[in-house]
Amino acid sequence: MLVRIVGLGPGEPGYLTVGSLEALRETGHAVALLAPPDLVRALESNGVTIDRSLIPDAGALAHGSAEAIAHFVAALDALHVETFGLGVLGNPLSDMPGLPPLLRALEAQGHSTRIIPGMPHATLSASIAMPLVPLPPQSQHYSWDDLVEIMARLRDGCPWDREQTHRTLVPYLIEETYEVVEAIEAEDLNALCEELGDLLLQIVFHSQLGAETGKFTVADVVDALSNKMVRRHPHVFGDAVIEDVDSQWRSWEKLKAQEATGQKRKSRLEGIPKALGALQRGQRMQEKASRVGFDWPNVGGVLDKLHEELTELAEAQRLKHDDPHVREELGDVLFTVVNLSRALGIDAETAMREANEKFYRRFAFMEERAAAGGKTLSDLSLDELEVLWQLAKT
What we know:
It is a single chain. The protein has helices at about 20-25, 35-45, 60, 65-80, 90-95, 100-110, 145-155, 160-165, 170-185, 190-210, 220-230, 235, 245-260, 260-265, 280-290, 300-320, 325-345, 350-370, 380-394, and strands spanning about 1-5, 30-35, 85-90, 110-115. By secondary structure, it is mostly helical. The protein folds into five domains: about 1-125, 3-Layer(aba) Sandwich (Cobalt-precorrin-4 Transmethylase, domain 1), CATH 3.40.1010; about 130-230, Helix Hairpins; about 235-265, no CATH class; about 280-345, MazG-like (Helix Hairpins, Orthogonal Bundle), CATH 1.10.287; about 350-394. The protein has a four-stranded parallel β-sheet, sandwiched between helices.
């Protein structure tokens, strides 16, 4: 059998070369490893017959898994065809780590091979080596490998870096995350670029600590993430069909539940970090509950529930129940407000941050106006404060 290993390009139908398309047409039978659905449909519409069931684990075959290669070669032997096409994303010569062991296995079984190059992935990943932001004088460009090496040298040569552990770095990780959020909300792209770098440093730092203890390296972090994204998006990296966002969420939750971590969880609500802000954690729990149908059918039901909870809070306060009971009723009100936010399609945490900033701006304005008159806010009466507040609002 002649096996044509054909480059499919970066994944967009427009990047498929004429040579690759013709090579697959001539085979009469082919598979397309990890090809997006749009590319598969484009191939089929151009006369290429794609087998969607021959390879159970396309990712493993592309990366050189001995088991996946053995399964593939055995499947070829059972086909009894003269030619077969193996479509590979990118260029097989540069983008398929499993190519050498696959060629050896095919040769051992007496199959001949022909490689048809395609447009490499590098054409769409040039941004890795092509910075857009001008550097200050005396600065130079660095690569991902350079960053990993810099972190290793910092751990070796900097006293502060040597003292850090996963636990001591937690405050910095949280702080850098919030600084990224601030840059996004301020729409400051220059700051966002810098803050994303600070956040990336935290990831590389933790990975270096893992490497030093022999637990994991940054390569393991990249592998785990990439495998997870491929596994949880069969509609992008496989031939599954997902029609809308709701279907995507249901598929995501189902696939997560099948993973080792998901199988250990006793509740769907496990896995939501307790360290999240209370509003954010509440909304995430409600979202997960909603995906199994535990939800209000419309906003009106949430508003009715909010009115009920406010009534219960007022009653608890009127009867002067102990503080824990009043606090519980207030918590119910806040939880329902989060539910209302979700029902309206609004992120509760973002809405609260924006409300905080709005109050900050108005209060600072009041302080400035009072200072302009030689006073502080504490020197003013409640009526005078109200006048300033209304002025701040306008």
